[in-house]
Amino acid sequence: MSGATGLVVAGVIAALFLIGGAVLLFLGLRMRADAAAATRENDRLSALLTAGPAQVMLVQADGRVDMPQRLADWFGLASPPRYLPELTGEDQGLSPQDSAAIAADVQAAQRAGRGFVRAVRPLGSPRAITLRGARAPAGVGAPGTVLIWAFDATDSEAEIARLRGETARLSSAFEALTGLIEAAPLPMWYRGADLRLAMVNSAYVEAVEGRDAADVVARGIELIEGSDRGGPLAGAATARDTGRSHEMVVPATIGGARRSLRQFDVPLPTGGVAGFAVDIEDLEQARSTSRRFAEAQRGMLDRLSAGVAQFGSDRALVFCNQPFRRMFAMRTEWLADRPEFDRVLERMREASRVPEVRDFPGWKAERRDWFTQTDGAIEENWHLPGGVHIRVVAQPLPDGGLLLIFEDRTEQVQLASARDTLLRVRTATFDNLFEALGVFAADGRLQLWNSRFRALWGVEEEFFTAHPRVDVFADAVASKLATPNRAALIPELVRSATGERQQRGGRVAFADGRHFEFAAVPLPDGNALFTMLDITDSRRAEQALRDRADALEEADRVRTEFVANMSYELKTPLTSISGFAEMLHGGYAGKLPRQADGYVEAIIDSVERLSHLIDDVLDLTSSEREGGELAREDVDLAATARAAADAVAPALKRRRLDFAVEIARSTGRITGDPRRLREVIEHLLRHALESTPEGGRILLHADGNATGARIVVSDNGPGMDPDTVAHAFDRFAQPGITPTGERALGLGLPLARQFVEAHGGTVELLSEPGEGTLVTVELPRR
Fold this sequence. Notes:
This protein is α+β, with helices and mostly antiparallel strands.
């Protein structure tokens, strides 16, 4: 039993060993699998750590460094350092400052357990590394070990720098935008999503007369008053709800004045609404003024003589004035449809108011290009059938339209043609005048001259074509004059005509003996016309006439003296004849027969008439010598008239004439020469006596008024024909035949008129054949 038991026990033990070995084998295999898994996990983690964006290093309490090769590569080191000071190398690793700073951070972490973050840049590398260090947790290294994670922050730093720059730019732009909004001259504001004011600028504060922006926002002062369109928030609500900008014109009171504002509300992505308002009151006023101006301008264009047509940017007729409609025979109802430019040209062609061209479509296309011209106004002339000339001006408008102006220049062209003809005629006339002519401009330069002017001075044509000044011209021609210094008169006269606008002239003698009369005449255009006329022949004739006049005056003086002397010589024998005849008639030589007595009376009458004739001749010659001088004294004209009548009465009685004297009280007194006044009346009475046959009637009438006196002598003699009346007062006129059959010189009437005119009076003679003669003398009181 014991052996069996031993066997059993041995079998059990062997089984136990077998089971234990199997378990150990299982556990070994499992541990191996776990070790392999752990190795794989460690490799995976190492690979992840190696490939990860962060690397770790351990700094032991004694300063030793446990660093992977990749981190050493980041620092630019060939191999991992063993101690912290070895992080700095020659032109590689970290800078001494960064290395010292890391050592200080590690020491602080070891002592105080304070973590740190440090950014470093390896020497000569653009890489940026961020180090985050802290005391290593338990189980990681010995006590005092510091765990440092290194992150490659190159991309992050670049992004941070970019974001920092972008932030600075946006901040600057925001500040600039805020400053712009604040400085804007128009009210601007911002509303939150609840449409309450959140921000306003200074212009808004000033418009609502608030204290400051905060006060306006706090009190919610609105710029726009309430209205029937939903109040000041209507536009903002519409913009927020529709997501589109909203615009409306609203009234507002700013600075005590009613203004019109154009309000804009703009929705923002934040849910708020920004707004601003533009004062359009002046714009509305300007639009109203522009509208009134356009209406006034169109009214004015209707009154122009030129045709005006305006086309819009769509090339449709916008406006045309009345002259355009008349010029091109356009009906108002047709123009009301706003025809296009092409249709208007076609209608003009139908009315024969465009030039005749072969290719009308091409011509029309060229005119259509006027709308797009950029070189300013286009101008051309249309020559129409019938000799009509139209000037066309096409002005492109800024809005793409076109303004056309049609000016009928037919009359101007005709006038220009006539003017050209007149100028040619004037030039030909100017050049062929007998006078020498030159035209000097206002600046004194010679502008025009005719051939005689150049030939007169003997100057070359080249000198004149240079248009010399008047002083240069005077110096050049001075040698042609008999007195050279007289040439200075030419500039003086030209300046007087151009500057003072006065006409002056004179005479000048040439060295060759010719004489010229010259003058400077101001012309309407400011120039001066210098004329020269050859008066050599007329001067010679004038001198001859002057010599002849002197000779005639001398002969007349001799004749007058001879007549006076002869008259005085004749008076002496006439006195003797008259005396002896009166003695014979008075019977001093005895009683004469009746027939002899008649002869004596005839002798007395003839002597008396001859004596009066000699007295008239003496009066005539003495008045010529004395120059018609009269005595000036107070004269009783009535008494003078009676004395003259009494002196002539015997002769009238002998002729058996009826003599009537009518002296009115109004005759009065005048101032004059009493002797000459009496002779006037006697001459008139003797003329009537000689003109009236026996049995006739003679009337002497005198009257007057406050300003003058009148003497009238009339007779009923045979009268005079018109030719005799015309020469009745001429001295030494052709002798006439008296009613007695004798010839008379008729000096009485000339002497009477001479004496009357010397007193300031007038003599009038009226006579017709068979009706007698009436002589009226008017004498002023003074």
